[in-house]
User: Fold this.
Amino acid sequence: MTTKLFINGQWVAATGGTFTTHDPATEELIAEVGKASTADLDAAVDAARAAFENPEWRDMLPADRARLMFRFADLVDQHQEELAQLETADQGQPISISRVVSSKMAAEHIRYYAGWVTKIEGRTSPISTPNTFHYTRREPVGVCGLITPWNFPLSILSWKLAPALATGNTVVIKPASVTPMTAIRLVELADEAGFPAGVVNLVTGPGSIGAAMAEHRGIDKISFTGSTEVGQSIVRASAGTLKRVTLELGGKAPSIIARDADIDAAVAGNLMGGLLNSGQVCAAYTRFYIDTRREDEFLTKFAAGMEAMTIGAGKNESTQLGPLVSAEHLQHVEELVAKGRAEGAELVTGGERAADTGNFYRPTLFSGVTDDMTLATEEIFGPVLSVLSYQDSDELDELIRRANNTEYGLSSTVWTKDLRVAHRLANGIRAGAVFVNSPPIPDMAAPWGGFKASGWGNEMGPYALDAYTEIKGVWMNYGD
Assistant:
């Protein structure tokens, strides 16, 4: 099959040619994908601008827009299994994850923001100007460019698309080039739901199209999820037009395991938190700070858990660890593992490819890692985890300092039965999310965003409404 672009309510052939997307488990061709040119991008932006200014969308009653979004959510629900299978084929994640985290979460996010449409309110202000009534309005930002990553293409697109539409914006979607298929299908369902022409547009293509979106004068806002390096380039590119920018970027999440922790629970939670989607998660737990008196027990049980995981194609119901997304990314992970060995970290288990074909890599655990090693400082984005020990006599402030000794601050976790320790660490860790005795699973009603180099702004919950609206103040003089 050859896919097309979606511009102004029509599926149109890309003028830039095509590129391919492959199943990372088998390396088989899935589709020839339309490769957008800058002219195609211009057409999509023009369509989004016209739709934004069209009374059919601009003046649509909130109740009508909510009904439209509820219909969209229902369609995603009806096609959950199809979307999950497509996500697994294109991205490689185990089908159990595609069903629960990807397709189910997409429907839930759309439905959650459909409920917000009729509840977006302004406020009155007790200003000190005589004979003047002041109130505020929340208004849509305008044309929003939504640039999504390859690790959870469907669910992360829903995080962006749902609040953008709920607040009355129009969008141009640009999915990652290696995983475009579920974005294409989601846009088909949006079209079936009945959004007016030009409200939702899709351009598929290389990273250069995303860069062009950041510079484009017709786009008012960029929402990007991906690497910190690319996020920085988007900020630079958007400066010329002073776009609104929301960024959810890289992470190097610490997992602090206290002496009193339930080790079996910590092992189970960190196996999920560190190896979900083969570790291709920005919030993945990757640095384990373990009390030296519990280190041997944790290492033994954790390594056994890793070695017992079923590795295979994501479509197999028994698979727990699927392939990495591409051969290039597999090579990147291999290079970082080799660097860890060269710097003196001790390999406990893994450290090699798991098959001759496909992009499979064994879950890998290092011990004896120090805070300055590459394994502890660089985001690997694969099934490679590191243990860094600490003495129970260490002050909590020192442990907090070590956990914060990174440019990132997206997620973190604490494993303890002591509420005092849990609150002290949760207060001290500089990250957008702190999970206590829990894996890093976000929720549509809670904020999601990073500190430091992990991003700007928040997605999810009512906080996403701030990202997609402007505040207008109205001064109504009623004097003589």
The domain at 5-249+450-476 is CATH 3.40.605.10 (Aldehyde Dehydrogenase; Chain A, domain 1). The chain has two domains: 5-249+450-476, 253-436. The first strand starts at residue 5 and ends at 7. The mean pLDDT is 96.
